[in-house]
Prior knowledge:
Blueprint: H1 2-13, H2 23-39, E1 53-56, E2 64-66, H3 68-76, E3 80-94, E4 100-113, E5 116-133, E6 136-146
Parallel strand pairs: 1-6
Antiparallel strand pairs: 1-2, 3-4, 4-5, 5-6
Amino acid sequence: MKKTLMALSAFILFLPAGANAGDLEDIVAAIEKRWADTAKKQMSPRDSNPAGAWLATSQGGLWQFQTPDETAAMITDSPNTLVFQPMHINVQILGSRKDVAHAAYYLVGNIMRDGKPIVTNYRTRASEVFVKIGGKWLNSGSHYSPLYGGSGVVFE
């Protein structure tokens, strides 16, 4: 019995490090929180990688690199309010240290200005990369592309 316990203990100790329990739930919660905060125009720079992040909006155009402050200001300073609900969130945790994750999901909702919808039926695909820094999953890159029949985001 003692040999079995020792062998089992050694086996567990030398297994490759896996994602910590709760990481998938933490990433889903981070996504849901970000879109709830976005709808309230309360996006925090602390939710993005401090080194910055790459972004391609559903508005189209080229990739842009943004600091956390620029990412937050894009939402908080806009005359429009993005009221989106993330749906069907799928997360895969990657990397030898299990500190990188890819999330793919859909966004649906409306874009509002002065309390009135200016874009209804907003529907897009979302793909994001998260990096675990200091125990927290932070956004490091995002790509959004409209679904067929859906509209892209409007910033102006």
